[in-house]
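tmp note - Rieske 2Fe-2S family protein
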Amino acid sequence: MTAFPDIAATPAELIDHRAVGRSLEAPFYTSPEFFDLDVAAIFAEHWIFVATEAELPEPGDYVTITLGSYSIVVVRDDDENLRSFHNICRHRGARILEQERGSVGNIVCGYHKWTYGTDGTLLHAPSQPQGFDPGCFGLKPVHVRSVAGLVFVCLAERPPSDFPDVAARIEPYLLPHQLRGAKVAAQIDVVEEGNWKLVMENNRECYHCDGHPELLRSFFPTYGYTEENLPPRLRPAHERYLQVDAELRQTCQRLGLPYELIEELDNRATGFRIQRDALNLAGESFTADGKVACRTLLGDFPTPRLGHLALHLQPNSWFHFVSDHAITFAVLPLAADRTLLRTTWLVHPDAEAGVDYDLDVLLAVWTATNEQDAELVGRAQRGIGSPAYEPGPYAPTEYQVEAFCNWYITRLRAHLTR
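out:
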């Protein structure tokens, strides 16, 4: 590979010269200019996973989300519908809700007490002149939609038109887990010292999975490999996987659960991948022995041995759904070299901590995995910051990383063309 000749290249030039099959040039991960472009071209133009309906169980419940310079509110209104707004008062632009989450009767700006309903309408604006029309000053809306209990927002005036199709194709996989009626068992935020794309890329491959001993108790280390590139050391695990996967397919067919792989990661605006896949050991959950972490199953399943349903969505999320709980992961950019990873564990609404599940057991695998990944992402960010860095080649098992980068470059090009 010939290095890009101009160290002062513009983002557009770097995008045009991106080498297929290799990691991105350093400015994509380190430049504040690229960070601003990512917020504008990716996070302000695509559907972004931000929460679960379980976080908003009652009217007035809200969460706030930061995406670059944007602050968004998602709230359940008085009619129990989801609403989303820019977190900006229509008076003089003050930030309205400062907390990450809470519950309100009305939405009141703490500066001059302009008051809004949970549907965004302006209810009260003190000391306005005669003829003032409150109907012209409601909160600015943001597109919001729930997909089987997963909440997405889109800041664009015209969201990507393919999202309804994606939702229709993944909902049959998700609905049996009854996420809309679930409750939050725990939520943990980790700030990773790396660019948001490194967080996503790290999740898209298992080339590094020997660094996850807790996860590899139940997760097969053969993820991403094929018969052609499978190393001999993984052959026994692969044989075990084939056996368990065949049993899982028979179970899914008997129960009418969709399990087939759908993978459209870089050929559409809303890239996604979904598949129900086998787990090792008892095959039930992400635990040290593969058995359920929660006695009360999340859905109406006659067996807990259902492997895991894995969903990846560009640009900022991945999910794992097992019979007894669900784990959601939201990637939110903070700066060119800092990213918030928010992980949420959902369980059956009747499941009781200390009775139906041990919270430490429930959290153990993915808490450890997130901490390990954060260290790896930080290491990658520090290395890419060196003048000696140049893009390296992806291994065949990293094809999903290449797909993510190809999707990302394609979306940047589309944005700059517009």
